[in-house]
Design brief:
heterodimer, A: 269 residues, Rossmann fold, B: mainly alpha, globular
Chain lengths: 269, 354
């Protein structure tokens, strides 16, 4: 459904995305993972159509992304940003409603869809609250509900769980996985490898703008691959009941021999 | 859940209706009071007779109804209506600018649109530019207002400097001082009889308003209200920031262009005929927001009504506080609006809300 063909993005001579090709079909939840600065959010913003790639192409349903109007694009994909902005004291319910404001959906479904989306992330009790006074987690849940009522086939989530506690991390990603199972195309940038492994059916591992691995959690989360990309020793285990990989960090290895030698020489002189 | 929201909805709708009705009634009452009071002493019964005369052709004209008729229909009514129209356009321009910049402190006067537009007008007076006849001045004010708004927007780009309220205000200071310096230089060049009309720009005045400007500005204000009201939904979405507004289907580039043109049009219309009258665009949308919330569907029309009402009352004050002299209306609004602005800044919440 959403496909990236050999896309690159260069800004001020820096290659932020380097010849990435990735296909995100309907019915899948793809997690974009990788270390800080690997280009995960940048790739997601290319997918959202925020800017065109310098090279290559992105398509939705085989049609180039640039050929969609802003309004059409809003009917195809919804985007949950990393941090949400709100400039005036709208109520939570009004903010959720905004997701639907420019969609040509039947008006009689509005109340039901908005109510359901708010119930889903348990913000009904906040409905009349000033949305500017919400905590980070409440804000993220409100944004998730807003994105959901937009009812688009494609959902792009940029670190949706960063501000959430365990319960809502789980709840939100379960919901995302259900949408994927319903035939939506869901792409999420994630920092937490274990959440990604537990809920996504595909992982795309990025490193310095390049796609270094793409496949099922067991394929991508291999020890030598992660250690090379993250420069951090890890250990891969099996989740006791989910059967997915679990990544834990291990202590740094003992200092390398060369370092010890130079230290020794210093003490001598 | 559904019954809850629907009951909340209906309980909110009726006070809003009441607000519209009471503000319209207040406007009507204000109009009548404005028309009946003034420096020229005319017995109120004569004025009332003059007021109703055109509607009752059979009513016999009183002895000195000529004066009453002239005062009412040629002086006070156009002036009161002009106050309504100017107030409405300034308040709407303020509400639209605040939505565009995502900043509740944006106001045509504070960020410099008014001084930009009045620089255009002053330039046309002093340099005796006369390419479009009587329309030169309004068109010149509009063009310079448009360019100024665009410039301010480019410098303050809300998307790039998210949440940086101070930036817009600092840009306003700079724009105001540049436009002020250029206006000052032009004033220095001006002849004595030009100086007199320039005084009018610097202070703002509703004196000597005839029917012509009222009839010129009325369609502009109406046009502005209708077109702005149609941008209510995109303006609401713009509160999510430009990026998220675009994700939700707002063509931000087009919306921005439209809003800048409309703000410049409304501000320039006001400036062209009455000079710079400040703070209406700041005070009114803020008060309306505290009453009905930030949704632009009600914010825009209620700001228009409220702005008209406020300026009409201010003009009444300007005429009657120090008879027989008139206090320039711009000075009056600034002396009320300035403290209000300070109060807004003082009670600023840590989260950036106002």
């Amino acid at each position: 459904m959403l496909s990236i063909q050999d896309a690159s993005l260069t800004i001020d001579g820096r290659r932020l995305i380097d010849a990435v090709s990735l296909n995100c079909p309907a019915g899948s939840l793809t997690a974009l993972i990788g270390p800080n600065g690997a280009g995960k959010s940048t790739l997601l913003s290319l997918m959202a159509g925020d800017r065109p790639p310098s090279d290559g192409q992105l398509t939705i349903n085989e049609r180039p992304l640039e050929s969609y109007s802003v309004r059409e694009l809003a009917a195809w994909r919804a985007v949950m940003p990393q941090d949400s902005v709100l400039r005036f004291a709208y109520r939570v319910e009004e903010v959720v409603r905004m997701g639907r404001a420019l969609r040509d959906l039947p008006v009689e479904d509005d109340e039901r869809a908005i109510g359901a989306a708010m119930q889903d992330v348990e913000i009904e009790s906040l409905a009349q609250r000033n949305a500017m006074t919400l905590s980070g987690g409440e804000q993220a849940r409100t944004t998730f509900a807003r994105v959901r009522v937009q009812q688009t086939p494609i959902l792009l989530l940029d670190e949706p769980t960063a501000a959430l506690d365990l319960r809502y991390q789980e709840r939100l990603l379960q919901r995302a996985a259900e949408w994927a199972a319903d035939g939506h195309c869901v792409v999420a940038v994630m920092h937490d490898l274990n959440l990604a492994a537990a809920h996504a059916d595909r992982l795309a591992l990025l490193d310095r703008g390049r796609l270094v691995a793409h496949g099922s959690p067991w394929e991508v989360l291999s020890r030598h691959q992660l250690e090379a990309v993250y420069r951090q020793p890890v250990c891969i285990m099996r989740h006791p009941d989910r059967d997915c990989p679990v990544v834990v960090t291990t202590a740094a290895p003992s200092p390398t021999p060369t370092a010890t030698q130079s230290d020794a020489r210093e003490t001598v002189t | 859940m559904n019954t809850l929201t629907s009951s909340l909805r209906s309980s909110q709708r009726s006070p809003r209706h009441r607000l519209y009705t009471s503000m319209m009634l207040a406007m009507l009452a204000g109009l009548v009071v404005s028309v009946l009071s003034g420096v020229v002493q005319v017995p109120p019964q004569d004025l009332l007779a003059a007021l109703v005369a055109p509607f009752f052709a059979s009513a016999a004209p009183a002895a000195d109804s000529g004066i009453a008729h002239a005062v009412l229909w040629e002086l006070r009514l156009p002036r009161a209506l002009m106050a309504l129209l100017i107030g409405a356009s300034l308040a709407m321009a303020g509400a639209a600018m605040q939505g565009l910049f995502g900043n509740p402190l944006a106001d045509p006067g504070i960020v410099g649109v008014s001084s930009g537009a009045s620089l255009g007008a002053v330039m046309i007076i002093v340099l005796r530019i006369d390419v479009l006849g009587a329309w030169t001045l309004p068109v010149g004010a509009f063009c310079s207002g448009f360019v100024t708004t665009w410039l301010i927007y480019l410098l303050a780009r809300p998307s790039r400097f998210e949440g940086d309220n101070a930036r817009l205000l600092l840009i306003g200071i700079a724009i105001n001082s540049v436009a002020g310096a250029m206006t000052g230089y032009l004033t220095y060049l001006a002849s004595v009889e030009q100086l007199e009309s320039l005084m009018f720009w610097s202070m703002g005045s509703l004196a000597s308003i005839s029917w012509t400007p009222v009839l010129t500005i009325a369609p502009l204000v109406l046009f502005g209200l209708v077109v702005l009201r149609r941008q209510a939904v995109p303006l609401d979405l713009l509160a999510l920031g430009e990026r998220q507004a675009r994700h939700s289907g707002v063509d931000v580039t087009r919306l921005r262009r439209r809003l800048i043109a409309l703000t410049a049009l409304l501000t320039a219309a006001a400036v062209a005929f009455t000079g710079t009258i400040g703070f209406i665009g700041l005070v009114v949308p803020h008060l309306v927001r505290t009453l009905v919330g930030p949704g632009h569907r009600h914010l825009l029309p209620l700001s228009a009504i409220g702005g008209g009402l406020l300026l009409m009352i201010a003009d009444l004050g300007a005429r009657s506080l120090d008879p027989p002299n008139e206090i320039p209306i711009g000075i009056l609004t600034a002396s009320i609006g300035g403290p209000f602005f300070l109060w807004l800044i003082a009670r600023r919440q840590p989260g950036g809300g106002y």
